[in-house]
Each structure stands twice: as structure tokens, then as C-alpha cells.
Amino acid sequence: MPTRDWRPFVYGGFSSVVAEFSTFPIDTTKTRLQVQGQTHDVQFKQLKYRGMVHALIRISKEEGVKALYSGIAPALLRQATYGTIKIGIYYSLKNALIRDAHDETLLKNVICGVTAGVISSSIANPTDVLKVRMQAQHQQYAKKGMFNCFMNIYKSEGIRGLWKGVGPTAQRAAIVVGVELPVYDITKKNLILSGVLADNVITHFISSFIAGVTGAIASTPVDVVRTRLMNQRRLKAAVVNGSRAEVMYTSSLHCAVQTVQTEGFLALYKGFVPTWVRLGPWNIIFFIMYEHLKKLY
């Protein structure tokens, strides 16, 4: 493909939307698992869910199956922007930096992935904030339309509220995109060049599965911090030892330290199973569709 090719943007956006819709209920359970157990917020202090399957069943029984798709509108909007920009920038940079298969290295792929992840996630952050709020606080946001929810966050928290958590979001995207896309491309390249497999669905399946596993391991701690920062409300100041203090996370580092101190190190891997279970199918659906669209057109 030429460097200024529009196809990676279109194929990436469309494939991302399909993969997102197909795996969204798993993402909802991941969000619920990540926000529970916070000692600073009474609303999320209780440990309601014992795991992914228990969360799926309990959410369905108590709130209805529709609750599993709460936040799907901003999630699809996010993928239509984030996924389009991410894949477009990644493969456009690769086409500019790498002339042939022998010139491709893991380092070059990682640089392209990190750059694409940071830029695309920063632009799409408001849709990510709303998606997390709607997933974690379904009862509060269920009857509001997407536009009204955006306006509610803007009116109560300002423009900064829509970009809350943009730091860890960009960090997570840098890790996920900087791991998943390079791992997928390098795995696929080596499988094909070794003669073990051809450039077919089996190769795409294996490569995408490996990319999903590595992405989940690398990104879950940052994802937990990102989810908690996005979901937190600006709580009223409380009196602590005669002084007023705001009970909230002030930064990514503060959130990570508080989480480890109050809940233990493994709390940074809350929601790992649904993250892994989701990233696997998500990557498989995405890459197989993306590769199919490339061959089709």
C-alpha cells in the first residue's frame, strides 16, 4: 500500500467497531470488577462480584441483559474514532519506515504502535470516560441519552472531566498498541517466512491470540488505574483530623499506590480474566476481518 493510503483507516475503524460490539458484555464485567473494593468511595466499597461469570449472571439478573451493553453507544463511537486513527496511523507509519519484509523489526513496529496508541486514545478520551461511567453506574446513566450524558459530565466537571484519566488512558494505549500490533505483525511474519503456515486464517488466528495474551498481561495494571480515575466522582470535601480533604485519586501514581496499599498488589490485576478473555476474541475478530478486507479490496 502507498504511504498515503486511506484503506488502513477505514478497514481499521470498521473492524474495530465489529470486534467491540461482539465482545462488549465481557468489557462491562471487567469494568465492574475493576471499580469494586475501593475504600475511598462508599458506592464501590462492596465486593459484589466474585469473578467474570458471576458478574455476568448477577448483572443480568439484577439489572437486565441490557445492562451488559450499557455504554455501547460511546464505545462504538470510541472505536469509530480511536480504532480508525490507531490502525491508520500505525500502518501509515510502518509503510513510511519499512520498505520491505526484511527491513521490519520489532523495535520499529513498537515505535509505530506507541505513537499510534497515544495520539488516537488522547483524541477519543471523552468517549472512553462516558463508556466507563455508563458501565460502572448503569442505574444513574441508563435513562439518559449519550449526548445528555456528555453534557452532564461537562456541566458538572467541565472540559477537564471529559479528559479525566487521559494520562493513564494514553499510557494504556501506548502499552496495548505498542505490544499487540507489533506482536501480531512479527508473529505472522515469522510464521509465514518459516514456511510453517501460509498467509491464511489459521496464521491470523494464532497471531491474534498471542497478541491478545501479551496485551492483557502488559496492560491490566494501567487499565485498572485508568478505569478508577475515569469512574471516580468529585466527592465533597470531608473533615479529616480537623482539616478538609478531598477523598479522591489525585493522579495515576496516587491511584496505583492507594490501590496497592489498601487492597494489595494483586488489585492491579482485578479484571484480568475478563480482560484476557475479551482481548483474545477482540483481536481474533478484528485481525481476521481486517486481513479479509485487505484481500477483498
From TrEMBL:
Q: Which Pfam families match?
A: Mito_carr
* Keyword Calcium in record: no
- Which keywords appear in this protein's UniProt record, sorted alphabetically? Membrane, Repeat, Transmembrane, Transmembrane helix, Transport
Where is the protein localized? Answer: Membrane
Q: Which InterPro entries match?
A: MCP (IPR002067), MCP_dom_sf (IPR023395), MCP_transmembrane (IPR018108), Mito_Metabolite_Transporter (IPR050391)
The annotated topology with respect to the bilayer is: Multi-pass membrane protein
First and last residues of every Solcar repeat: 7-96, 104-190, 199-296
Q: Which PROSITE patterns match?
A: SOLCAR (PS50920)
User: Repeat among the record's keywords?
Assistant: yes
Domain of life according to the entry: Eukaryota
Main subcellular location of this protein, as a coarse class = membrane
Q: Which family does it belong to?
A: Belongs to the mitochondrial carrier (TC 2.A.29) family.
Q: PANTHER family, alphabetically?
A: MITOCHONDRIAL DICARBOXYLATE CARRIER-RELATED
Protein's UniProt name: Kidney mitochondrial carrier protein 1-like
